[in-house]
Every structure is written in C-alpha cells, then in structure tokens.
Write a structure and sequence with these properties.
Elements lengths: L1 H91 L17 E10 L3 E6 L5 E6 L5 E4 L2 E2 L10 E8 L5 E10 L11
Parallel strand pairs: 4-7
Antiparallel strand pairs: 1-2, 1-6, 2-3, 4-5, 6-7
Length: 196
C-alpha cells in the first residue's frame, strides 16, 4: 500500500508539474500573442500615419499645381491683352481710334495706267487701254495718296477723262485696294485747268 500511495503521490506530483508547465506554456504563448498584437497595432498605426502623410503631400502638390496653373493662365491672359493693346495701338497710330489694320504690307503692289471713268470718296473706276479697255474698280480708304499737279487732293476731286497712274494691292478678299493715284494729264472735259 505504501508503494501504491507513493505511486499515487508521484502521479499527482507529476500531474501538478505537467499542469504547471502547461499553464506556464499557455501564459507564455498568450504573452507572445499579445506582443505580436502590439507589434501589428504599431505597424498599422505607422502605415496609417504614412498613408495620411502621403495623402496630405498629394493634396498639397495638387493645390500647388492648381495655383501654378492659375498663375500661368493669368500671365497668358495679361500677355494676350497686352498684345491686343499693341495691335490696337498699331492700327490706330496711338490715337485710340480703331482703323482697319493694313494686312497687305507683304502683298505685291501692282500699277496700271488709264483714264478715270468715275470717282467718289471711296471708289474709283479706271479704263485701262493695256487691258483691252477693261474697267478696273478700286476701293480706297481715307489715307490713300492722291496727287494732282504735284499737290495732294481728295479722291472725289478727280474727274472722268483724267489720265492717271494707279498703284493697288489685292486684299485677302481679292478686292483691289487703291494705294496711290497720280493724275498724269487732265481731261479736256474740264477746261481752264493746266494740262501736264
């Protein structure tokens, strides 16, 4: 019996030892799990912080890019306004009154000789003998140079029958724009004026 008691005691002691070891092992594993959980939480917080910083940096870059774009658009608008102002000044000669800009500066100037059929303040018709007596009709602006007896005169002062030399250019619409006209010889229809 004594042996039996000893055996029971040994088994009980062994059970207690094993139970303590199991409990220690469980507690150690729980500690490791808790530590791993803390590590995961710390990494999650660090990741969230990095994501938030990246998002904030992205928003700041977008805001800066929008500011830059707005500034560039403003500068472009100012440059366009300045260019329009310069073009307006060129067209008006600085007077503030807009006149049509001469877009024919690079277009070849042609010259014809003929006899005036009719003349007004803004148009003139010339009969051109070199072109089978074709009638050429010219448009003129107020700045057209008109010379008669080496003196400037108005276009409407020219008379039918006056022999003239006319310089003109074609505008973008194909219309003949009178650049200058000079009376070479007076018509017999208005006596009293000297002939050249």
């Amino acid at each position: 019996m004594r042996k039996l008691m000893m055996a029971v005691m040994a088994v009980a002691g062994l059970g207690l030892t094993v139970g303590c070891q199991d409990r220690n092992k469980v507690q150690e594993e729980q500690r490791e799990v808790a530590e791993a959980q803390r590590d995961v939480d710390a990494e999650r917080q660090e990741t969230n912080k990095e994501v938030a910083e990246t998002r904030q940096d992205g928003q700041q870059e977008m805001t800066d890019a929008q500011k830059d774009l707005t500034e560039e658009q403003r500068e472009l608008a100012e440059a366009q306004n300045q260019q329009l102002g310069e073009q307006r000044d060129e067209a008006t000669g600085g007077s503030g009154v807009t006149t049509p800009k001469d877009t024919t500066a690079n277009i070849k100037t042609e010259e014809v000789k003929g006899t005036i059929q009719s003349a007004s303040a803004t148009t003139i018709a010339v009969i051109v003998p070199d072109k089978n007596n074709q009638v050429m009709r010219f448009q003129a602006n107020p700045q057209v140079q008109v010379m008669k007896d080496d003196k400037p005169v108005a276009l409407k002062d020219l008379k039918p029958g006056d022999e003239v030399r006319a310089s003109y250019q074609l505008d973008p619409n194909g219309q003949m724009m009178l650049k200058s006209i000079e009376v070479k010889k007076m018509s017999a229809q208005h006596p009293g004026e000297p002939k050249k």
